Amino acid sequence: PPGIPRIEGYRTGDAISVGDTLTLGCISRGGNPSAKLIWYKDNVTIDTSYEATDGREVTNTYSMLVKPNDNNAHFICEASNEVSVTAFTASVQLTVFYPPSNIKIIGADKARVGETLTFECVVGPSNPASEVSWVIDGRPTPAIASWTRSVKEGWVTTTNISITIRTRNQSRVTLLLKHFAILFFKPSIFKFYTLLEFRRSLASKKEYICEKAIYRDYSNPFATLKWFRGTGNDREISGLTSVSGSGVSSELIIRVKPADNEATYKCEASNPATSEPLTANVKLRVYFISSLVNIKTKPKFPKEGDKVTLIAETESCNPTCSVKCNKNGINLQQLVENAFEAQHFGKSTKSTFEFSVSPKDDNSIVICESFNKLNKTIKQRHTIRVLCEYTNFQLVCNVQMITLIL
């Protein structure tokens, strides 16, 4: 069965605001076959899409624009496959802050002198609960009673007051509603929370190490964070955004390729207080190894007694690869090894070896290995063919090419 899922992007107890974009990621590892991941909101299916990243990890990402009715909503991620007896689940409950949208005053609009009137005000729902004050003819007046009640979306506040009409003049009843003030300030100075080295081995397409680039921001309202590859107007890349009461962070997970070596990834932050987005850049260093070693000999078809120059050349590696060769299990002495600029800001290596051949070297096997700090080795085999002559009409070695002189 698959592993127990985990939810990224939000933790129960964190506060988010109406209008925020929230991205929830559900991740499950293991299982054969891979897990099916399904998102539920209050037990209603909302997303059945999921993607296997490396054959062992499955992800389902759900994005939404936060609304007032998302307060106290339960989001459940369910992981299962064909052999699961019961599904594994993980869940979060949202806390959404928003001001009240409904304010209602209940009471008479006409009265006789000496009559006592009662007014009631109902405000909400909102989260957190609203604070209500009464003002009569410009003078603050305490309420008789105030109370709040919990509803699914948040809180409804009710307060009432009584006044006695003492003159024939009109009285004006004013309701002051206090919720929370919205202050705008710019995102803080950009700083990457953590950035680890990206590595990938091309020896096996299934072997790679993908680490995280995370940007964390503290601003009000929380900034909108966007990722781009390159420093220009490149295509936007989806990140996993997490919102908490103290800030917002965006996590970018990349399956790196050799082409990402020295590539720049940019994060932009903006909110209503910024005239232009703030940006921060990070340049990647990607480790990779060439999957090929090219081997050639000079001369191509040596004769008995010839000195053979063997050249082994790798394609682009980072860091630079070294090469060693052996003939029939015996190491060959290296004459020289040079490195040259190559694709993806890597280097190719050209190593030269020299040895003499005799008839017994025909069909010898040369094995060359390239390796670097990735602790991966790429091997290439090459067969040496030696041309020889007839002696007293006796064949002394296998013949690759024969020229008869009569």
Automatic annotation (TrEMBL):
One of its GO terms (molecular function) is cell adhesion molecule binding. Keywords: Disulfide bond, Glycoprotein, Immunoglobulin domain, Membrane. Gene3D superfamilies: Immunoglobulins. GO terms for cellular component: cell-cell junction; plasma membrane. Residues 5-95, 100-279 form the Ig-like domain. One of its GO terms (biological process) is cell-cell adhesion. This is Nephrin-like protein. Pfam families: C2-set_2. It comes from the Eukaryota. It comes from Leptotrombidium deliense. It is found in: Membrane. It is a single-pass type I membrane protein. The keyword Glycoprotein applies.
